[in-house]
Amino acid sequence: MRYTKLRKENFHEFLRVLERYGKVYAPHRISEKFYDFREMRDPNDVVTEYPRTVMPPKKFFFEPLSELFKVGLRDFSYSTPEEDIQPFVIFGVHAYDIKGLMILDSVYMEPGLEEKQYAVRRQKALIVGISDMPDQYNFSNVRNADWVDEGFDLFLHPIEEGWLIRVGSPTGHKIIDDNSQLFHGTTLKDIDDFKEHEKRRQLSFPMCMSLSDVRYVLEVNWNNPIWEEEAKRCLGCGNCTMTCPTCRCYEVWDEPDVELSSASRFRRWDSCQFHDHGLVAGGENFREHKVDRFRHRYNCKNSYVKALHCDFCVGCGRCTAFCPAGISYMGIITHLMEAKVHED
Ligand code: SF4
Ligand code: SF4
């Protein structure tokens, strides 16, 4: 892999250079405690140290609300919005969110079942990763999602003089080559800084354990009373799924215009924590009770689907950090791991 160095004094210029590749979205502080990806207006507003954004970068590819296609009800025309998608840049993506996107790729870009809008957005996006310092909710190390060697164009690691950059794609190479005045060769001191930072980072993760048998732990604890106890505290708000980088459920509906000249099909995020999520024709609800919905999320993340890059959880900690009821995802999993087998 190619390494290069970006000095502190060139950082803002680098962000301006990225604008040539499309609209730049980057982490911004949006309140006292929270951060989110926002369009960059001023490089001074871009944050490089943050625990996690409220919404993961999935919102740029699998949008919270999107029009899938439009049909003319009189002229029988058909159009999709893919042609209007412009190239864009997401700056400052943490490794676990890059893994999250790779997991979504496996769903929305499955060969033969490609979701066109998602695929076009992925092709048009440039991803610039940045190293994170974990806080108390981050267990991406346990999920093998604290480091990536693919899924980005450039990846920045802090060093004393500025940033050590790993180059991860042909576009990344081109950015470096086309703007060589901004970059410098790395020295042994830079590599030592980088190694030192990584060492501190690894020591900052709050957990060190194996989740390799978690799917079996969940299976044998299907009737553990912890599900009822914790589900009682759950508000069913859906924060945990909306903010999760790998949650991907949605609902679709058709809407004609008032003149009945055209109609559009829309898609909107849905949450398995909502009562109506399991409601089907005939009034049957296959997850009628809150405990069913609550337990379902843990199984969906850890056992229902085949593990690819890792299970369908990258350990970002959002579901715990943003749960208004203070429910700890890993608190429940560790409790079950200690219980191991629960007999009825
Ligand atoms: S964020 Fe917390 S309260 Fe809201 S649905 Fe998820 S677990 Fe329940
Ligand atoms: S389940 Fe929770 S910790 Fe895991 S990826 Fe989703 S939000 Fe992050």
Number of domains: 2
SS elements, strand count: 12
- As a percent range, the share of strand residues is 15-25%
Main sheet strand line-up = 3-2-6-7-8-9-1-10
Give the SSE string. Answer: EHEEEEEHHEEEHEHHHHEEHHH
Query: What is the subunit organization of this protein?
Result: single chain
Q: Write out the distinct hetero groups bound to the structure.
A: iron/sulfur cluster
How would you explain this protein's 3D organization?
The protein has 344 residues and is α+β, with helices and mostly antiparallel strands. The chain contains 11 helices and 12 strands. It has helices spanning 11-18, 95-108, 116-124, 170-178, 188-204, 214-220, 226-233, 239-242, 290-304, 318-321, 329-339; strands spanning 2-7, 23-29, 35-39, 65-72, 78-79, 88-93, 125-130, 154-159, 162-167, 183-184, 250-256, 262-269. The protein has an 8-stranded mixed β-sheet. The protein starts with a strand and ends in a 5-residue tail after the last helix. The mean pLDDT is 94.
List the helices and strands and how they pair.
Blueprint: E1 2-7, H1 11-18, E2 23-29, E3 35-39, E4 65-72, E5 78-79, E6 88-93, H2 95-108, H3 116-124, E7 125-130, E8 154-159, E9 162-167, H4 170-178, E10 183-184, H5 188-204, H6 214-220, H7 226-233, H8 239-242, E11 250-256, E12 262-269, H9 290-304, H10 318-321, H11 329-339
Parallel strand pairs: 2-6, 6-7, 7-8
Antiparallel strand pairs: 1-9, 1-10, 2-3, 4-5, 4-12, 8-9, 11-12
